[in-house]
Amino acid sequence: MKNESTNLLMQKLQKNEADPDTKILVRKVINVENLQVAYEKWRWDGVVGESLIFESNDVSGLSEEELIELLRKNELMEEITQYTTKFTEDGLLFVNFNFVVV
Q1: Which of 21, 45, 76, 99 has the maximum number of C-beta atoms within 10 A of its C-beta?
Q2: In tens digits, what is the pLDDT along the chain, a chain of 102 residues?
């Protein structure tokens, strides 16, 4: 089941490719509290950032505050001062954070 979930998440990511000006530096699937989550590090328009990408259904019972607290508790977002969230039409939730101007 884990591989099937990972494959589905990666397929959705490939369909939902980033803006052509965005360069994905790292993409991998990680486990957060038994959820398969994609991690990306990217560069766009002089900014480097990170994203954690969830299947929307996996976190539909959590408020935005609860989701961010979950990520902080798991030491994925401990240094965050700013973040954005974005839902896609194909059922993904992007949490973008750690923005650095380069």
Answers
A1: 76
A2: 456 667 788 888 877 776 789 999 999 999 999 899 999 999 999 999 999 999 999 999 999 999 998 888 888 876 666 899 999 988 999 999 989 999
Class of domain 2-101: alpha beta
What does pTM read for this prediction?
0.86
Q: Are 63 and 24 in contact (CB under 8 A)?
A: no
C-alpha distances (whole Å) from 29 to each of 47, 51, 89 are 23, 11, 21
> Domain boundaries in the chain?
2-101
Q: Which amino acid is at 40?
A: E
Q: How many helices (H) and strands (E) does the chain have?
A: 2, 5
How far is 75 from 21, CA to CA, in rounded Å? Answer: 29
